[in-house]
Write a structure and sequence with these properties.
Shape: globular
Strand order of the largest sheet: 1-2-4-3
Structural class: mainly alpha
Number of domains: 3
Number of helices: 21
Distance between the termini: 30 Å
Helix content: 55-70%
Length: about 475
């Protein structure tokens, strides 16, 4: 149970400092952050929020303000909702009702609503809710592989075969699961999102595609593409469908809306989905993978090294969401991620090691306690926001050490061609995601992390001085 006394200032002041309850269009939380979607950024007092006791930092992503809290964020979130009477359930529908009510609404400039970063941030937000499904399937599959390599479970045994196809289902049905989460994200009826996602992996469509033709609709030829285990096609489909859904719900009379809105959405989206958004999404996913592969081919191991070194800054800006989406898509479609996975594990461990240096060098008891907590969280669980924003970025030199360590750890991982084969945890206990047919893959990842951690600690110990910490 969290000690909420440490977050009294956050609980009692954060809502007022974001412009009041009326300025909040949606209030969410993730693993370490409180997330306020605000109507008017001008009403938010970001600097004052960052100084609240219990807040490790702030970050803007579009019109969303994120308060970095740490592992106690869930309890803090619940308490804030109870204190201010904020609904802890899905706030998207309420926001949409406000859109349809004709009430006065601050218009957000188009450039703030449409951006590459916003696109991948939204996609990442849709993937997060299905991570437990991907982790379950991925980690169990890793365990099966380990047991088979140790000779403890035969690959032709009933248990192995059954659990194996059950694990495959976690990625095969991604379009269905994402159909639900995307619909929730974009304010569309979730069951329609599931339906549109299921259409993309219909056995009939898959059978037709395998024969080289997917038929036609309204006289338009349907591109023969497979969408099983894919992410981009269903995301684009539901994104467009949500606009159709809201348009129809706005203009169809209430008496017949529940009947005609779903029917018309299906009839309108059928050609758009099968002929435009799904093929476009498939192409986008393919070219994103090609771009990453090109970077890897051109720069070789140095590509991995450079990415690992700069990835903490990508996390700060939210741009890491783009490559996180690539990683998930690559594993689902090709069976491995040759770029992002290894770098992410090295980066996360290095942030913890850098915070550990601060914990060992700090003289102030509060500084030491905070740094120790952040270091352990990053090293063991792989959750780095508290260490990154609350310690390393604050004192600057620790993050430089982590970047240098990341370069050398990433360089080794790149030279050895380390790949992540399944989606799973991001801390030390998640290393089984690197278990593959070649046992040396996991060993090389551990060595890469050890190199990164050692360089981070040595450089950090040299450049971080007690007076640097005292000055803050």
């Amino acid at each position: 149970m969290a000690n909420l006394n440490n977050y009294t200032e956050v609980i009692t002041q954060c809502v007022d400092l974001v412009g009041g309850k009326e300025n909040i269009s949606q209030f969410l939380y993730c693993t370490t952050r409180l997330r306020f979607n605000v109507k008017d950024k001008g009403l938010v007092k970001t600097d004052e929020l960052g100084r609240l006791k219990g807040c490790l930092g702030t970050q803007w992503t579009g019109n969303q303000l994120q308060l970095i809290i740490g592992q106690d964020v869930a309890e803090v979130y619940k308490t804030i909702c109870k204190t201010y009477g904020i609904d802890r359930e899905d706030k998207v529908d309420e926001n949409l009702d406000a859109d349809l009510s004709g009430g006065e609404k601050k218009k957000v400039p188009l450039k703030d609503r449409i951006s590459i970063q916003g696109f991948f941030t939204a996609m990442s937000a849709c993937i997060v809710p299905i991570i437990p499904m991907l982790v379950a399937g991925g980690m169990v599959k890793s365990i099966l592989l380990i047991l088979s390599q140790l000779g403890l479970l035969a690959t032709d045994s009933g248990t192995y075969v059954t659990l194996s196809w059950m694990c495959d289902a976690s990625t095969y049905f991604i379009p269905v699961a994402l159909g639900y989460t995307c619909a929730k994200r974009f304010g569309m009826d979730p069951s329609m999102g599931i339906y549109l996602g299921a259409i993309l992996i219909s056995p009939t469509l898959i059978s037709m595609v395998s024969e080289g033709s997917a038929g036609s609709i309204y006289g338009l030829a349907i591109p023969a593409k497979s969408y099983t285990s894919s992410i981009f096609p269903v995301f684009l489909t539901i994104l467009v469908a949500s606009y159709v859904w809201r348009f129809l719900n706005r203009y169809i009379p209430t008496a017949v809306r529940s009947m005609f809105a779903p029917i018309l959405t299906l009839l309108i989206m059928a050609p758009i989905s099968l002929c435009v958004t799904a093929p476009l999404g498939s192409t986008l996913g393919t070219y994103l993978g090609v771009a990453i592969k090109w970077l890897y081919d051109v720069f070789g191991p140095f590509g991995t090294a450079i990415y690992t070194a700069i990835s903490p800054f990508l996390v700060m800006t939210g741009m890491h969401a783009c490559l996180s989406v690539y990683s998930t898509n690559a594993i689902a479609t090709t069976g491995k991620d040759i770029f992002v996975g290894a770098a992410s594990f090295i980066r996360n461990l290095n942030q913890g090691i850098a915070a550990l240096v601060v914990a060992l060098k700090a003289k102030d008891p509060d500084q030491r306690a905070t740094a120790w907590s952040c270091a352990i969280t990053a090293i063991v669980s792989g959750v780095t926001e508290p260490a990154l924003f609350g310690v390393n970025l604050r004192y600057r030199k620790p993050i430089y050490a982590a970047c240098i360590g990341g370069f050398f750890g990433g360089l080794y991982a790149g030279f050895m061609g380390v790949a992540r084969y399944v989606y799973g945890g991001i801390g030390l206990f998640g290393l089984t995601v690197f278990v593959g047919e070649d046992p040396s893959n996991l060993i090389n990842q551990v060595i890469a992390m050890a190199i990164g951690a050692a360089v981070t600690f040595i450089v950090g110990w040299i450049i971080v001085k007690p007076e640097d910490l005292a000055a803050k």
